Amino acid sequence: MTKTLSEAEDFAQGLAARRRETGWPGVQAFVIPSFTSLHLVAGVLEGSGVLVGAQNAHWEDDGAWTGEVSVPQVADAGAVLVEIGHSERRMHFAETDDTVRMKVAATLRHGLTPLVCVGEPEEVLREGRSADFVSAQLEAALQGAVDSPDDATVLVAYEPVWAIGEHGRPARPEEISGVLGLLHSRFGDRVSGFLYGGSVAEDTVARTLEVPHVDGVFVGRSAWALPGFLGILDTAASSAPHARRPRLP
C-alpha cells in the first residue's frame, strides 16, 4: 500500500526508460502496484517488456462483493499476473488455502498467470516443519486448478513469514534450498518457476539467485524506491544465467 498516482507514474516512467537503455538481458522484470495505479502503470510500461500484476483478485467474475476486484477487472486494467495468498492477506484478511485455490482457478480461467505466495511462520521453522508446511500450502493452491504439465503456468513465490518485513531475518541458503528442493521435486512439472522473497536486496540478490531451485526473486520494500529496484535488476542481470527460467506471459 504505497505510492500516489503521481509517484507510481514517476516510478514506472523511470523503470521504462532504464529498460530501454539496458534491457537487463536474461531478466524478466515485473511490478505489482496498488489497484489505484494499476491501469496507469500498465499504460506507462506497455511495450517496455516489464510485466504488470495485481496484488489480489476475487474468485468470482462479478456480483455482490463490495470492495473486491475481479480477475476480469484487473485484466482489463492491464494486469497479466495476479499475486495470490501473500502472508499479509492470510494474516490480516482471513485468506485461506481454499480461497487461494479458488483465486488460482479464476486467474487461470481468464488466461492470466497466478503468482502464488507460500511461506511458514517462525514457530514452524523452529519445529523443523518448514518444507512440509509450505508443500501443503502449495498442494492446496494447485488442487483442481493445475493437474498436469499442460496447466503449468503458475509462478510460486516462497516467502518465509519470518524473513519478510522491516524486521525480517534474511534466510540462509540452506533454508531456502531445503524448502524449494522439496517443492521442485513435488510440483516442478506443474509450476512454471519458483521465486524467493524475504529480505532480498541489492547486496543479497546475487547469492540468492545462486541457490539451487531459485529461478528468480520476489522483492518487497527494497524495491519501493526506484534506485533500489534498478540496482537489484542490474545485479541480477550481471549474475550467472540459470539453465532454468520461469515461463512467463
Largest sheet properties: 7 strands, parallel
Output the helix-strand order: HEHEHEHHEHHEHEHEH
What is the rounded Rg? Answer: 17 Å
- The CATH class is identified as Alpha Beta
What is the number of strand segments?
A: 7
EC number: 5.3.1.1
Enzyme class: isomerase
GO biological process, one term: glycerol catabolic process
GO cellular component, one term: cytosol
Structure description:
This protein has 249 residues and is an alpha/beta fold. It has one domain (5-238): TIM Barrel. The protein is 42% helix and 10% strand. The chain contains 10 helices and 7 strands. It has helices at residues 5-22, 35-45, 71-76, 87-92, 97-109, 122-126, 130-142, 173-187, 205-209, 226-238, and strands spanning 30-31, 51-54, 81-84, 113-118, 155-158, 193-196, 216-217. Strands 1-2-3-4-5-6-7 form a 7-stranded parallel β-sheet. Helix 7 runs parallel beside helix 8 (173-187). It is globular. It starts with a helix and ends in an 11-residue tail after the last helix.
Quick recap of the structure?
This protein has ten helices and seven strands.
Layout of SSEs?
Blueprint: H1 5-22, E1 30-31, H2 35-45, E2 51-54, H3 71-76, E3 81-84, H4 87-92, H5 97-109, E4 113-118, H6 122-126, H7 130-142, E5 155-158, H8 173-187, E6 193-196, H9 205-209, E7 216-217, H10 226-238
Parallel strand pairs: 1-2, 2-3, 3-4, 4-5, 5-6, 6-7
Key features?
249 residues, alpha/beta, TIM Barrel, seven-stranded parallel beta sheet, 10% strand, gluconeogenesis, isomerase, Triosephosphate isomerase
